[in-house]
Amino acid sequence: MKAINNYLKRLHNRIKENKGTFILYTILRLMVLAALIRSILIHNYEGAAVCLLTLVLFILPSFLEGSLQVEIPGLFQGIIYCFIFAAMILGELHNYYTKIPIWDTALHTLNGFLFAAVGFVTIDLLNRNSKNVHLSPLYLTMVAFCFSMTIGVLWEFIECAGDLFFGQDMQKDFIVQVFQSCKLDPTNNQQAIKVADIIKTQIFTASGQVFEVEGGYLDIGILDTMKDLLVNLIGAVVFCIFGFVYLHFGSKKKLAASVVEGLRIQPAPEEPAEEEEEA
Predict the structure, then answer these.
(1) What residue spans define the domains of the chain?
(2) What is the SS3 assignment for 269?
């Protein structure tokens, strides 16, 4: 009950301080609820599970605020809500990952940017409130970059596990016309044999099924993983540039200051003690 009361209290404060964020949160939540009802009516229970998971993720920022005793700015929360909606509802439920080829790339780029911001503002918060630790701007931004890349790598592990153990295709496939492989070397001398100008491949299964891949060879997830990590790196580098400029020049660089300040996580303000009722 105390956790629910704290959540409702933070929600009330959010309405007062960040009406735009609350309106966005409400609209997105209503859209997810509508998608949930529709999924149930058409017996798409996997889609319904995606909607339920999305609703749980929507509560995550408020939960983190309460458990970590921090205050997440409205802009940051709004970006998080849009990211969750774009990844779960549009990407998974409405198949934007396949309908719009750059959808996955855009989300991984934003993911790199956001987690660099999380790493940056978290370490900067500790740096500002510590009497014994004073990190240089370069070191702090390097930590933020490494944090973002670590999260990106861990997510790729999750995608690989989903493909291997749960029959998913989270690591999307590419069709390539050229590859090199030492497995094709008849002398077993680790010589990479190049296969070029591939126009078609066939896959034969033990059950007698034959699958034809037109246009080349089906690469299973490797290039997708490398692409995801590359764009994650780009997103992380972009934020780290903003962060370094902000730490080095302060508010003199208005663009960097507005980006960092808009995403800065602050310690939760102390609540005034409640006055005891007079007998």
Answers:
(1) 2-170+220-267, 174-219
(2) coil
Q: How, if at all, do strands 217-219 and 210-214 pair?
A: unpaired
Task: Give the global pTM.
Answer: 0.86
- Amino acid at site 15: I
pLDDT digits (tens, 9 = 90+) for 42-79: 999 999 999 999 999 998 888 888 787 888 888 899 99
Q: Are 46 and 36 contacting, i.e. CB atoms less than 8 angstroms apart?
A: no
Instruction: Answer yes or no: are the C-beta atoms of 151 and 277 closer than 8 Å.
Output: no
pLDDT per position as a tens digit, 119-129: 999 888 888 87
d(CA 187, CA 133): 58
214, two tokens:
């037109």
3-state helix, strand, coil in the chain (%, to 5): 65, 10, 25
Residue 5 has pLDDT above 80, yes or no: no
Q: DSSP letter string over 166-230?
A: S----S--EEES-EEEGGG-TT-S---EEE----EEEEE-TTS-EEEEETSEEE-SHHHHHHHHH
Task: With CA atoms as reference, report the closest residue to 67 among 144, 137, 10.
Answer: 10
Cβ(81)–Cβ(70) below 8 Å: no
What average pLDDT does this structure show over 10-17? 62
Chain-centroid distance of CA 146 in Å reads 15
CA separation for the pair 28, 26 (Å, rounded): 6
Which token pair is 226?
């490398």
pLDDT in the model for residue 2: 63
C-alpha–C-alpha distance, residues 20 and 65, integer Å: 19
Q: Read off the pLDDT of each residue in 88-111 and give the average, rounded to a whole number.
A: 94
d(CA 51, CA 147): 29
Alpha carbon distance 186, 122 (integer Å): 54
